[in-house]
Amino acid sequence: MNILEKLASIDRRYIFVLIALTVVIPLLFPIGMPITETDEVRAIYDYIEGLPPGSAILVALDYDPAALAELYPMTLAVLHHAYSRKIKVIGMTLWPGGAALGNLAMREAAEGIAQAGEDYVYLGFVTGYSAVIMGMGEDISAVFPTDYSGKPLSEIPVMKGIKNYKDIALVIDLAAGSSPESWVVYAGTKYNQTIAVGCTAVSAVGYYPFLNSGQIIGLIGGMKGAAEYEKLIETRGAATAGMDSQSISHVFIIVLIIVANISYFAMRRREK
Amino acid sequence: MGTTIGTFIAAGLTLCVYSFLYKDNPFYKFAEHLFVGVAAGYTIAIVAWHQTIVRLIWHPIKADGNFTVLIPTAIGLLMFSRFIPRYRWLIRWPLAFTIGVWAGASIPRIMQSFIFEQAEATLQPFTAVGNLQLFTTINSVIIAIGVLCTLIYFFFSVEHRGPIGVTSRIGTFFLMVSFGAAFGYTVMARISLLIGRIYFLLRDWLHIVQ
Fold first, then answer.
1. CATH number of the domain where residue A100 is located
2. Which of the four, A244, B77, B162, B174, has the lowest number of CB atoms within 10 Å?
3. Interface of A with B in 30-89 (CB under 8 A)
4. Do A67 and A182 fall into the same domain?
């Protein structure tokens, strides 16, 4: 059996171990590879940066713990940016599994720079999906009578003067599923709401048409997008820490693909 | 203390799941069944009980004396008539209501968002060709060709021969490029999830990484 045949029949568990090493070693010994921000991430940053203090944004935390690795860092980065700009943040979620997660994220990002009730409010989860999106276009308090802790919205200072999308400068949907499409269809098309999207890398490909058509103003895709946003707000978070591992493991996978293809075509030629 | 126990449980379950990479084993099976059960139970408890029964049915009746909520409740319960062969036909009522409302609310807006605005965005650069930069113009032409050829590929009413065959092959090429991009993004997503888990193990569990 020559080298090409050996490579083609290698036990996959060796590959698993090597992939694990390409992830673990850069985490233990960071290299600090440069991160370049893309236009689609910068667009969201610039939009939030350009909002006057006291503006309100709605952050839809539409994910559950399965997408934590990619979406939690970008959640913290976006929330931290909004809090530091004194922008009011209204948090909510369309995913039942993300209800407690959203509360955790908003509190963690607010540590030391924002106060619950005064600077942000977390409304929690309400079932209904597209009905929730459409309902908030008319009256947010009709859909969410209370916040996540059960306090009526009328008693929460940050909600003063905010009734529906007309009072919200930006909706940013941080999503693990296809909820950005619903936000674009129901909030963007019907109420002309400005929408930005943060999503897992798997979903990002499907949202570039919305970005190119102007239906969303920006797109944060996966952990790389989160790392770019962390760089823009001059913070080193979990996403930035994972970029070295990301790059090295990707190079390793590319090498594997090339070797596998060479092996495949060489063996096929030999059989002929 | 609670956080520490939770971290250890999470780390243990993470390792149980990753043990599958060596081979299938009872630890993996336990973690998998635990996850499915907890996820299903959590969703049913939150969505079915707290959000539907308590918030939408019980609370309006108890707090506001609003008994009209029983009408949509009854219509919704007709969904379960599916399981009684003699009354299976009753499911048509809630289905008709649901589909009718959804179609009325969604179809015009989905057509607007997914078709009209996308088509407008594809063609709009050609309305200002003289004012565009070279790269943008070339990009717009490539996108338009790609959209047209890909749509022709999916048009099966005509045999893919001659000019239609050629444009269909070009559409296939664009499809392959998009699948490659999707594959690349998928690989990045999966590696990101692995990085997230290992980062949790090294930072939150073992405290090796800050």
1. 3.40.50.10160
2. B162
3. 68-70
4. yes
